[in-house]
């Protein structure tokens, strides 16, 4: 099917002044009817994407891909109140679904509902990392790779995953992982401005030295799989490359457990090195400047990611204590329920955040 390309407007706006829509305070998906993915919506001057804007913020797009982005953005404007996600974020969902418009709509709609329900837009402003995580979580951001992508280093082999789960619980770790992904989105925006080219994903370096059977503890694997599922569904196409270093003999067991839950396109971005293979041709120097290779991998860069050691067993909590806290954590959504007796008053507190909008309040009464 031939899809006509929209021509640039007569007076293109400079790239530095192009408006970029915010992703804050997005309401749940509307049930209004929307055009079919096979319909080509008529273009107007406001719908055209400037060529400089595309090359500066979005990267190379074919006429069909540009058409899909415009149509999906128009659909969001018609079916959602308030501000819509940035074009870069919308484009991630299109790429993850091979520009199948209907599949991208469905996935993006589910994510917007999930973000609003759990107030993910405010996560970085409200999340306070527990001191125990600061002391024993062996991961952190570290410079960038040769393509300008933010670089995240995870020393998984040095992390006491069992201890962290037994002390903090699965929900706290999950919230921390979500905060890392939100930070990654911000770093991508910052690096786009710094390097003057579109940077929409990051590189992750995972050091497996020290990985053993302790890391295959069933509740820990369960938590890991849930993290993979949530991140894959709500942060598609944010991982540009995954470098797995010093993979030990136990690694194939871990890979067998988790790989079925990883999207096929994402698995293609994995590069696995055993032993010291990462130091040779085709190793780290092909992807990371020598000045940024961490010292514990033979480079010259000081890295703040520590070898944390084991979490003291004296801090372990019972399963009941963790369950009660986890229920409290994820019950903190914008949706609340209450049982009210006939004729009895019930007080509801509305908290208004700056730059947010109160759309409506709905009460369902069952008599």
From TrEMBL:
InterPro entries: CRAL-TRIO_dom, CRAL-TRIO_dom_sf, CRAL/TRIO_N_dom, CRAL/TRIO_N_dom_sf, SEC14/CRAL-TRIO_domain
Gene Ontology molecular function: any one: RIG-I binding
Segments forming domain CRAL-TRIO: 129-305
Protein name: CRAL-TRIO domain-containing protein
Biased amino acid composition, Pro residues: 1-13
Region spans: Disordered: 1-25
Species whose genome carries this gene: Cyprinus carpio
Gene Ontology BP terms: negative regulation of RIG-I signaling pathway
GO cellular component terms, semicolon-separated: cytosol
């Amino acid at each position: 099917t031939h899809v006509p390309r929209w021509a640039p407007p007569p007076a293109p706006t400079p790239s530095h002044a192009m408006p970029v829509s915010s992703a804050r305070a997005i309401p749940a998906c509307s049930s209004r009817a929307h055009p079919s993915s096979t319909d080509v919506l008529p273009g107007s001057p406001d719908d055209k994407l400037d060529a400089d804007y595309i090359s500066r913020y979005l990267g190379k797009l074919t006429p069909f891909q540009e058409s899909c982005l415009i149509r999906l953005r128009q659909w969001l404007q018609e079916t959602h109140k308030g501000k819509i996600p940035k074009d870069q974020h919308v484009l991630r969902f299109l790429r993850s679904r091979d520009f199948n418009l209907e599949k991208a709509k469905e996935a993006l709609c589910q994510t917007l509902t999930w973000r609003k329900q759990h107030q993910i837009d405010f996560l970085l402003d409200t999340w306070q990392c527990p001191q125990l995580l600061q002391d024993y979580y062996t991961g952190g951001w570290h410079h960038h790779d040769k393509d300008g992508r933010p670089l995240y280093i995870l020393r998984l082999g040095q992390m006491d995953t069992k201890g962290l789960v037994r002390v903090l619980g699965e929900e706290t770790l999950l919230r921390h992982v979500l905060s890392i992904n939100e930070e990654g989105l911000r770093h991508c925006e910052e690096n786009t401005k710094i390097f003057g080219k579109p940077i929409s994903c990051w590189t992750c370096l995972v050091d497996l030295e020290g990985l053993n059977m302790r890391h295959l503890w069933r509740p820990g694997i369960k938590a890991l799989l849930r993290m993979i599922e949530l991140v894959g569904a709500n942060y598609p196409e944010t991982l540009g490359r995954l470098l797995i270093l010093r993979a030990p003999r136990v690694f194939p067991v871990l890979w067998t457990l988790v790989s079925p839950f990883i999207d096929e396109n994402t698995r293609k971005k994995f590069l696995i090195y055993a032993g010291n293979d990462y130091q040779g041709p085709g190793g780290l120097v092909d992807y990371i400047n020598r000045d940024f290779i961490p010292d514990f991998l033979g480079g010259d860069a000081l890295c703040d990611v520590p070898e944390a050691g084991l979490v003291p067993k004296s801090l372990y909590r019972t399963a009941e204590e963790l369950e009660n806290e986890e229920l409290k954590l994820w019950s903190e959504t914008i949706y609340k329920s209450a049982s009210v007796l006939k004729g009895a008053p019930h007080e509801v507190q509305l908290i208004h955040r700056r730059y947010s909008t109160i759309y409506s309040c709905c009460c369902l009464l069952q008599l």
